[in-house]
């Protein structure tokens, strides 16, 4: 039987602090959630502008980024719960009947087909150059980073995040940085898809901030 500890040993993540992923090689990551845009509903001029700005954004990058697309069943458990609470408080018989019919409609809609939710993320990395010699050495040893160098790395990572956010915003996309809580939920949901679809998420451990 696979346990949480067994799963964790396969992850490259060592810690999550201050909205930042710290990997086991001490490199850093921040993840941005990016809105979608319906490209084909745009006019030809708007499409050309989006492509032009995105082309310029990619050419301006001096570091690598990763794009991750998450597709999973939409969680409507909390929405149905709110509808149930409204039903219990409703005193108007006509509105109560309409509310129940609406709940039945939503339930039938979910049962007859999967409602998928797509989310788009951009992963921004930062690698400490002082680690390259250690990583390539034939004998591996524990990697340690000087606190001052680590602080400078976090600052440079934040500058990269702001650069990426600005470039994507010029393409008409809304961008925001994932919080520590959202990072935990994202990685947990990747390895626990069934539980995530019914709206269950674990509590955040007290040592993670």
Distance between the termini: 30 Å
Query: What order do the SSEs take from the amino end to the carboxyl end, as H and E?
Result: HEEEHEHHEHHEHH
Classify the helix fraction into a percent range. Answer: 40-55%
The structural domain count equals 2
Structural class: alpha+beta
Description:
This protein has 2 domains: 4-72 and 117-197, no CATH class; 77-114, no CATH class. Helix content is 48%, strand content 18%. It is built from 8 helices and 6 strands; from the N terminus they run H-E-E-E-H-E-H-H-E-H-H-E-H-H. Strands 1, 2, 3, 4, 5 and 6 form a 6-stranded antiparallel sheet that branches. A hairpin with a 2-residue loop joins strand 1 and strand 2. Helix 3 runs antiparallel to helix 4. The protein is extended and about 70 Å long. Mean pLDDT is 81; it is low at 136-140 and 200-209.
List the helices and strands and how they pair.
Blueprint: H1 4-8, E1 13-17, E2 20-23, E3 28-34, H2 44-60, E4 66-73, H3 77-89, H4 93-112, E5 116-126, H5 132-136, H6 147-169, E6 175-177, H7 180-191, H8 193-197
Antiparallel strand pairs: 1-2, 2-3, 3-5, 3-6, 4-5
Helix pairs in contact: 3-4
């Amino acid at each position: 039987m696979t346990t949480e500890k067994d799963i964790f040993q396969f992850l490259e993540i060592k810690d999550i602090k201050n909205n930042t992923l710290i990997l086991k090689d001490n490199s850093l990551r921040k993840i941005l959630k990016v809105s979608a845009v319906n490209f084909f509903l745009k006019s030809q001029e708007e499409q050309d502008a989006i492509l032009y700005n995105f082309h310029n954004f990619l050419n301006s990058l001096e570091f690598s980024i990763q794009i991750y697309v998450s597709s999973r069943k939409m969680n409507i458990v909390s929405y149905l719960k709110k509808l149930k609470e409204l039903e219990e408080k409703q005193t108007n018989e006509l509105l109560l009947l309409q509310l129940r019919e609406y709940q039945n409609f939503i339930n039938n809609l979910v049962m007859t087909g999967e409602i998928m939710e797509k989310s788009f993320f951009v992963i921004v990395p930062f690698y400490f150059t002082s680690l390259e010699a250690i990583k390539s050495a034939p004998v591996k040893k524990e990697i340690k980073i000087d606190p001052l160098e680590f602080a400078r790395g976090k600052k440079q990572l934040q500058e990269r995040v702001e650069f990426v956010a600005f470039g994507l915003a010029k393409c008409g996309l809304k961008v925001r940085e994932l919080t520590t809580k959202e990072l935990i939920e994202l990685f947990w949901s990747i390895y626990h898809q069934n539980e995530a679809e019914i709206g269950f998420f674990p509590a955040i451990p007290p040592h993670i901030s």
